[in-house]
Amino acid sequence: MKPDLENMSREELLELRTAVDRALESWEARRKAEALKAAEDVARNYGFSLQELKEVGGKRTKGVPRYRNPNNPNQTWTGKGRKPGWVIEALEAGTPLEKLEI
Fold first, then answer.
1. Given CB 3.0 to 4.6 Å as the disulfide criterion, which of 39, 67, 69, 72 pairs with 86?
2. 26-61: per-residue pLDDT in tens?
């Protein structure tokens, strides 16, 4: 049975919208729980936990640092990718890149 939206008051429409929003949130929560259980079951069938599979994807190692900021030893750079600001500043100040090597 479809509600007669045209004849409902503003307050009734707002209550209906709130009820629909709650119902949608509940439905999504149930579906997510079902999807998570299904994913866990599939991972278990392959002999893994879902956490183990999650750790495999997306994690990249940063690589071994080759350069260190002499003013802040906590700042390092592998020599790959964009140059950090401290490297650019050192080069602009005339410091050769070799002086920054670890």
1. 69
2. 999 999 999 999 999 999 999 998 888 887 766 566
Residue type, 19: A
Place of tokens 């900021």: 69
E strands of the chain, at which residues?
Answer: 67-69, 72-77
Write b or e for each residue in 63-97: b if 16 or more Cβ atoms lie within 10 A of its Cβ, otherwise e: eeeebbbeeeeeebbeeeeeeeebbeebeeeeeee
Check: CB of residue 67 under 8 Å from CB of residue 100.
yes
- In 3D, which of 1, 26, 3, 27 has the Cα closest to residue 15? 3
Q: What percent of the chain has pLDDT over 90?
A: 77
**Backbone angle region of 53, left / alpha / beta, with phi > 0 → left and psi within -120 to 50 → alpha:** alpha
Distance of CA 93 to the CA centre of its chain: 37
